[in-house]
């Protein structure tokens, strides 16, 4: 390995010969297609971030960047440290704080060496080793860069060789520095059914933190995903903006510190709340990946960077197919039996979707799961509801020529369950305190290997008994109260060990069942992140399926996650007609959660046709490029376009979001990402039976016209939802 050090062709050296004890200063650029993130080692071996922006043609010029800034005095030379240590010279928020084996709390990290590996055509890994000159304590920083997508995944590995254990009090994944006149944050907040509510603000001096202390369902109040625009809030197609998100499903913390020099320092990682980690000598502590992309051409490009990266490298089967489905949750809730489900299997076929998804309520006998306060943990089929088991339903699905999927919530336990009675020590609780429930349930202690085996076994048994099982919805409804593990000796490790346990189980599941599609659900969008999505093919954004709300929510989710990962179901939420509801659900991975047998003839016909239309265009939605054309928060309508990579076939979804007098698309919508020289026809599709389109589908337009003048979807109070197909003509 050592011989690989210093082989980086992109590094250049200069000698600061005027310094008495100088070593060579060196810049280490991490270049992707459009950008460079430049690290710099000074003559005293301090490692800083000197630049993150558009890349230069001559990389030797990066070293001139710092001199171009005339900021006030940097008293330590560490304000832009690549990984700020604590307790020595630092005067700003650290990335790492420790208590050494001898009780000393000071840490200083100096550059030792680095190496760059080309892992694949498009993927490089830079590893930089930092070491304390006094203590035998090392931090290695990893920057995995994806060239074409301008995405960087950053993490750190911490280890030491001290005489005893070291306490890690803070252990961030990444520590970035941005430079600008002003910084504008878009963060998200929410609660059940209110996920991904954006909030924009100008960042002021001091520290702004977004974090979670919820343990499980960590995103309930806010996700770790955020954007920071430089100079002004970046619109879709201009301006510089950084998108960041932590690939971690547990407690996270992102500190944004606008320091006295007017630099923005971003420090992201696991939340150190209640988590002082005792690190034994030679043990490696690996932080989760902090994922970011920088766009100098607006939010649209940043989102497409993440979409392309996620589909290619992160999301399970991101470049594959997905199944359309009928789910019974809102159609039946807990009230079903075998006959009812067999009817729903027929409805699945009638609707034309691929799969029937049996939701909550199919299990537990002593404390049957007939409502949400019993039975979690008792994953035996409820004999009263389903006397012939799941197997008979899976077989019946086969006869109906549809696939069968099932809901589980294996991390959880109901106080009224046989599991709780048999294994009270598997439950997260403080025995001396009153139990406190979230959705009437408690969380199992996944730090315990016995519990990990149990959770793995829940799925393994289902698959073993029903090899044709084609889909899993994995739910997680409770947060963690009274955090305590009867298994762990050191409770400070609890939150971290829980997540390690969860990922361990998911690894085992994927090792044995690599392909089966799984939906990541957490009472809606309570757990959506790129660590979990390595094991899941899609996520459930929210239980709120009111299409009007969904337009806004899906719009914001779409900045960070590609449409193929976003499950959208047509339900009875909201006041909109079936066409509007279906059109909105079609913008991601389409499903239904309605009583098909209660649809009137025309609504049923519309849904059946919509499934076929969706099947024809799903490839573009899942694998094409997404462009946001009209923001529902900025006007009276929303418009979102998907176009294939050849720029020859696409679709635009348009929705009126304001029902006040005379609102509509008074002006045309400018399309994006077309070939200016190609000719296109625009046709309205997914019309409700008996209605006709006001769009002239004979007219031929140049790509240039559509991108400069646009097309009017003709939205108004009688046409509130319009889908337009774009087709290049030969
Ligand atoms: C919460 C999920 O978000 C719903 O879709 C549904 O599966 C229920 N749990 C079932 O309890």
From TrEMBL:
Keyword Signal: yes
PROSITE patterns found in the cross-reference section: ALPHA_GALACTOSIDASE
Keyword Signal (UniProt): yes
InterPro entries registered for this protein in UniProt: Aldolase_TIM, Alpga-gal_N_sf, Alpha-glycosidase_related, GH, Glyco_hydro_27/36_CS, Glyco_hydro_36, Glyco_hydro_36_C, Glyco_hydro_36_N
SUPFAM superfamilies for this protein: (Trans)glycosidases
One Gene Ontology molecular-function label: alpha-galactosidase activity
Active site: 475, 543
Residues holding substrate: 192, 359-360, 439, 473-477, 521, 543
Keywords: Glycosidase, Hydrolase, Signal
Reaction(s) the record says it catalyses: Hydrolysis of terminal, non-reducing alpha-D-galactose residues in alpha-D-galactosides, including galactose oligosaccharides, galactomannans and galactolipids
Gene Ontology BP term (one): carbohydrate catabolic process
Highest taxon listed in the record's lineage: Bacteria
Enzyme Commission numbers on file: 3.2.1.22
Signal peptide location: 1-25
One matching Pfam family: Melibiase
Domain Glycosyl hydrolase family 36 N-terminal: 46-280
Glycosyl hydrolase family 36 C-terminal domain: residues covered: 638-724
Similarity annotation: Belongs to the glycosyl hydrolase.
Name listed for the protein in its UniProt record: Alpha-galactosidase
Organism classification: Bacteria, Pseudomonadati, Bacteroidota, Sphingobacteriia, Sphingobacteriales
